[in-house]
């Protein structure tokens, strides 16, 4: 167990454990008394929190949805900022970013199930690739306003981020970006199936 004394390993574990905290599930249970895993899409993310809580309390739904979005983003951001303050390498920072997303999508607290990873992915990318993430957020905002389908807007924004990273930073190693993109895409496969069937719900 000597490897646990390694600072990089400690941060990798911290990133995974912090990323796995199911804020949406906890907030919905504590403040609305509902289990988002048993309702709506079954996701623990902000969109499903908003959709499920909205059925009984529209005002509270907006607050809990916003809080879930912020906390899911921050759990990756905070670990990265601490790692930066410690002076860890860029390669280690990217490892932390990937593991935070993996933690959210495959949470150790939920039998390795979890959310879609969009908010956590957005958070870590904002730290690692701020300009590219801003471009993606603009694309997401336009998509959310026009098509009002969360999954489609998120995946369009993800594609924009990946393309922007290759255009603006062609010299960087893109493997971590592609790994995060693949995880998010994989977690959205059920959404794509519902979309093709015309069953994917709009966010109103």
Q: Can you count the beta strands?
A: 0
Distance between the termini: 51 Å
For the record, the count of structural domains works out to 1
Instruction: Give a short account of the largest sheet.
Output: none
Strand content: under 5%
Order of H and E elements: HHHHHHHHHH
User: In percent, how helical is the residue content?
Assistant: over 70%
Judged by helices, strands and strand pairing, the structural class is: mainly alpha
**Uncertain stretches:** none
Count of alpha and pi helical runs:
10
Radius of gyration: 17 Å
Shape: globular
Characterization of this structure:
The chain has one domain (7-197). The chain contains 10 helices and no strands. It has helices spanning 7-19, 23-32, 46-54, 58-86, 90-105, 118-128, 130-146, 150-168, 175-187, 189-197. Helix 1 packs parallel to helix 5. The protein is globular, with a radius of gyration of 17 Å. Keywords: Acyltransferase, Cell membrane, Lipid biosynthesis, Lipid metabolism, Membrane, Phospholipid biosynthesis, Phospholipid metabolism, Transferase, Transmembrane, Transmembrane helix. It comes from Sulfurimonas lithotrophica. It catalyses: an acyl phosphate + sn-glycerol 3-phosphate = a 1-acyl-sn-glycero-3-phosphate + phosphate.
